[in-house]
Write a structure and sequence with these properties.
The protein is an alpha/beta fold. It is 51% helix and 9% strand. It comes from Sediminicoccus rosea.
Length: 265
């Protein structure tokens, strides 16, 4: 019951607190106030428009994303691998259900990397964890979509394990740990987006599972290269995703779901 309530609260909070949505709301509120000759309207207008100007004219999205993506460097070699864990978030189960064709989003590297690792490590188990993380779930889970995608790429059989109940990162960690029950000394790779890795590692550590981070889906280049290359719409999404991760780190630490405020290697 508590988990269901927290899940609902988190979704409703982010629905209204998304930086781009909130900034647009502030700008509209300020403009309406100024039209009504309320001088206080200039402040929400400046704050709202200021967010979009900052994203457009400064490398703000890369600045706030880079610390997340660089927190856990990817190992030069995988070495011995007993299993690979792929976190959900890369598939679109509702779109797949409506169109009848497996759909991926911008985090698709999580799914393709699983196939690569499966071929490099034929002895390793491949575990996908993802259920229905939306307020209006459909009939399919993320795990259902993952099964379709991987089967089409030749990755199937008893070595592929699907966890289909997790709705967030904390449940990814706890439910997968309970399902797999890893043994001491086993080496498991954790595959997720680089900016999502700090919170993910913190959750798995709190669940009692010391995994090896294997980040993918980078969106920044070190040294300032190409920070202004992506279109404005991409940088808006990049900045919003980074802020979501920082909020998630704070909330998860407050709830005792991570091992540290900003987990480190």
């Amino acid at each position: 019951m508590i988990e269901d309530t927290l899940f609902l609260v988190s979704k409703l909070f982010w629905l209204f607190a998304r930086p781009n949505t909130f900034a647009l709301f502030l700008a509209c509120l300020g403009a309406a106030a100024l039209i009504a000759r309320r001088r206080w309207g200039r402040w929400p207008l400046v704050l709202g428009l200021g967010w979009f100007v900052a994203v457009l004219l400064t490398p703000l999205p890369a600045w706030i994303t880079l610390p997340l993506e660089d927190r856990f460097p990817r190992p030069a070699e995988a070495g011995r691998v007993d299993g690979v864990i792929i976190l959900g978030g890369a598939v679109e189960q509702l779109l797949t259900e409506r169109r009848g064709i497996p759909a991926l989003n911008g985090a698709a590297e999580r799914m393709t990397e699983a196939v690569t690792l499966a071929r490099l490590h034929p002895e390793a188990r491949i575990v996908f964890t993802g259920g229905q993380g939306t307020l209006a779930p459909g009939q399919m889970t993320e795990a259902d979509v993952a099964r379709q995608i991987w089967a089409g790429m030749g990755l199937e059989g008893p070595r592929v394990i699907l966890e289909s109940a997790a709705r967030n990162t904390w449940e990814n960690a706890t439910l997968t740990h309970a399902l797999i029950q890893p043994k001491a000394g086993e080496r498991w790779l954790l595959v997720t987006s680089a900016s999502h890795m700090p919170r993910s590692v913190g959750c798995f550590r709190r669940a009692g599972w010391e995994v090896t981070p294997w980040p993918v889906n980078y969106s920044t280049s070190p040294g300032g290269q190409g920070w202004f290359d992506p279109p404005f719409s991409f940088r808006l999404g990049q900045a919003e995703w980074a802020i979501r991760e920082y909020i998630g780190l704070i909330a998860y630490r407050f709830l005792g779901r991570t091992s540290a405020l900003f987990p480190a290697p």
